[in-house]
Amino acid sequence: MVTLELAGVVKHYGSRTALAGVSLCLAPGEALGLLGPNGAGKTTALRLLLGFTRASGGGVSLRGRDPYDAAARLGVGYLPERLVLPERASVRGFLRLHAALAGIAAAKRDAEVDAVLATVGLAARAHERIGGLSKGLRQRLGFANALLGRPELLILDEPTSGLDPLGVRDARGWLQAARERGAALLVSSHGLSEVERTCDRIAILNEGRLVASGALAELAQPGESLEDVFVRAVRG
Amino acid sequence: MNGFGPLAREALADALRRRIAAAVALAALVSVAMLESCTSCSSPVNVNGELRELSELAGPAGLGAFVLLGLWVIALAGVLAADHLQSTLDDGSALLALARPISRDSFALARLVGVLGLACCAGFVMLGSAATLLATRSGLSVAPALVAGGACALGCVAVAALAMTASLALPRAATLLLVLGGVWVSAFANGLGSFTQVGGWLGALDRLGPPLASAMALALTPWLEGVALQGDPVRIYARLAAWAIAGVLALVYAFRRVELRG
C-alpha cells in the first residue's frame, strides 16, 4: 500500500522535458524530501500528484487513484510554493471555506478551524483581513489550510518560505505532530537542513531525472552532509 | 458536485468585489432613470409629418428598449465571464481549491454561476424596471416580458459559458472582442432576419447562431399590434437552450483538459 506513486513518469511542456522517467513512492506515515536545483522538476512532480496536469507517459497514483479523480484528494493537505490568498477575505472565512471544500462536516467546521488557528498561532487574528497579514503570517495561514481536517497526506512546496526562524521552528513542530498522528509528508524544498530534520528519505531530481533516492544514511559516504550528497548527485 | 455551493458563493462574492460590479450597478441605475424619463413623457410626437400619441408607439418602442437592455445584460455576462475563471488560473488561486476533493467540473461551473448571479441581478433590476414602467405607464402586458427575461437568462448562460471557454485559450482582450462583437453581430443578424430573408454568413448566423435578440423579440410580439416577426418561437427557444447547454458542455470539456500551472 502506497500513499502516492510516480512510476516512470514523463512530462513534456511543448519541446521541453520536465520529467524524464521519474519513479517515486511514499508509504503511509513516511516523510519524503524532494530536492533539486531550480527547474529540476520538483514542482511538476507535485502538480502531477495533485491532478493539476497530466503525465505525458508513465503512471501516477494518489491514494491508489488517478489524481484527476477528485476523491483521490480527500485527506490531502497542500501548501503551494506561490501562495495566493483572497486579500479581502477574513482569516476565519477563508479557512471555513476550505473546511467545506475539504469535506469537513458543517457541525465540525468551526471547531476544526479554531484548532488549526490555535496550532499555527493565528487565533488572535481570526477576524482580520488576509490582506493585512505579513508574509510570514500568510505562510502560517497556508499551513493552517494544509492542516485542516487532519490530512493523512501533506504535500508541501517550499513550506518554510517567508517564515522567520521562530516560524521555521514552529513549522517543524507542526510537521512532527502530523507525523506522530500517522500522516505522510512529501516536502519539496531548497532548505536542506529542514528536509534532513523532517524526512526519512530523500529523492534528488536534476534536469527531470531522479539522480539519488534513499535514506540519508544510505546515500552519504562517511563524513558527508546532506549538502555534500546533494552537490555530488547534481554535479556528478 | 461536492463543494459546489461554497465555491459558487465565493465566485459570486469575487464577482461583486470586482471594480466592474460598480460600473454594472451604475449602468443599471442609469438605464432605469432613462426608461423612467422616456415613459413619463406624454406629449404627442411627429412621425412622418403626422402627430401621434406616444401610447400608440409604446409597443414597438418598448420592444426595442427591452431587447437592447437584454442584449446589454447578455454582453455584460460575457464580459464578466471573460476572465472570471482564467484569472484564478493566472494568479494560482484555483490551485488551493482544486487541491481539495473538488472536481474541475464543480469549480468551472461554480465560477460560471458566480458570473451569472451578478448578471442576473443586473438583469432583474434593468428588465424588471423596464417591464414595470412599460406596464404601468403604457399598459403593456407583463407576461411577454417574463418570457423575454427567461430568453435573456438563457442567452446569458450561453454567452458567459462560451466566453469562459474561449478565455481558456485566448488572451483576455481577444475574448472580450469576441464577446462584444459576437453579441452585437448576432443581434444585427437576428434583427435583419426578423423582417426579411437574409443570405450569406449573416443569414447563417441568424439561422444557426444563438438567437439572442430574436428570442427576446419573439417573446415580446404581443406588444406589437398587427406586426408579425419571422420565426417559429418554439424552435427559436429550443435553439437558444441548445446553445446554452452546448456552451456549458464546452466549458466543462475545455476545463478538464487545462494544465494548471499557477
The strand line-up of the biggest sheet of chain B is 1-2
Order of helices and strands of chain B: HHEEHHHHHHHHH
Which strand order do you get reading across the main beta sheet of chain A? 5-6-7-3-8-9
The proportion of residues in beta strands of chain A is 25-35%
Which structural category do the helix and sheet elements of chain B fall into?
Answer: mainly alpha
Main interface by residue count: A-B, 28 and 25 residues
The major sheet of chain B is characterized as: 2 strands, antiparallel
Average residue pLDDT of chain B: 88
Calculate the mean pLDDT score of chain A and round it.
92
The major pleated sheet of chain A works out as: 6 strands, mixed
User: What shape does the CA trace of chain A take?
Assistant: globular
Structural class of chain A: alpha/beta
